[in-house]
Write a sequence for this structure.
């Protein structure tokens, strides 16, 4: 696409900057979503205030989003350009107690 996008980048604890960066390429087997709305969750706050072992600085925060599909990799047939979607990354394992009770958002063994 060659476009730029705005992103909330955390460079370290207490160091947050909104910057322009390159729009990512559409990964194989995936879709590219233009973000229309984004939430900051507890994980994002923790990355900014205390650090998180899963985050390597600099890191773009704000991973719960709503937007529209603007590009699709070859072979994607379930969606269309322009479809409105929401994204909440991380999936429950499906086997632990919380997943079996219907709460995959608090899975004890989540899959990224």
């Amino acid at each position: 696409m060659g476009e730029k996008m705005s992103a909330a980048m955390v460079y370290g604890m207490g160091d947050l900057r909104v910057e322009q960066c390159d729009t990512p390429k559409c990964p194989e087997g995936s879709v590219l979503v233009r973000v229309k709305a984004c939430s900051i969750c507890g994980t994002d706050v923790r990355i900014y205030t205390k650090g998180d072992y899963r985050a390597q600085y600099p890191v773009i925060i704000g991973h719960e989003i709503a937007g529209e599909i603007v590009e699709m990799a070859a072979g994607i047939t379930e969606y269309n350009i322009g479809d409105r979607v929401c994204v909440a990354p991380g999936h429950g394992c499906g086997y632990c107690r919380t997943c079996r009770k219907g709460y995959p958002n608090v899975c004890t063994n989540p899959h990224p």
